[in-house]
Amino acid sequence: MEIYGKIKQKIREISDSSKGGVSAVFTAEVASVSGETCTVRLEDLSVSDVRLRAVINQGAEKLLITPKIGSYVLVADLSGGNYRDLAVVSYSEIESMEYKDAQGFEITVKGGKMSVKNGSYGIKQALDELIDAIGRLTVTTGTGPSGIPINKAEFDAVKEKIGGLLI
In the prediction, which pLDDT does 35 show? Predict the structure, then answer.
């Protein structure tokens, strides 16, 4: 049997609904999003409670991709043909992405910005604190402490640019 025939046979085996496989994948438009589910439209039919994560109870690690409303997604039937357990498996456009692990590490991408945190402390907070500390820098001189750096405005401009990249 040629390779394409083998691929076709393997897909049939995997998608056999009697074995709990995926029985259908279809394209739908995202109508709304709420938490980890969304409502999609199939022409004039609205389907609610479509999961955004195909895996349930994945442990403490979590990857949640939220599609843009009005965009298109591929939805898979995970229930073996009765269409009671649907999950998004691919996205045409995303609104946001969040990843969290068991140790408290988090990455969020949303609105053209990114956040990276470990617990409650993030990169943006650390950089803001560093730039603020540089802006308050004084040096001891023979006549007493110096004033704030004469280029403090440059540091403030860098802080503003960081705010445009990081949440």
Answer: 93
> Regarding predicted confidence, which is higher, 20 or 132?
132
Strand partners, 28: 73
Element (H, E) at 89: strand 86-91
Closest to 92 in 3D by CA, of 75, 105, 78: 75
| Alpha carbon distance 79, 87 (integer Å) | 10
Q: Which two tokens stand for residue 27?
A: 């394209």
pLDDT tens, position by position, 25-66: 889 999 999 999 999 998 889 999 999 987 766 667 889 999
Residues 6+ apart with CB under 8 A from 36: 51, 52, 53, 64
**What pTM does this model have?**
0.74
Token duo for residue 37: 């589910």
| CA distances in angstroms from 115 to 51, 63, 151, listed in the order given | 24, 14, 28
CA 120 to chain centre: 18
121: tokens are 């402390």
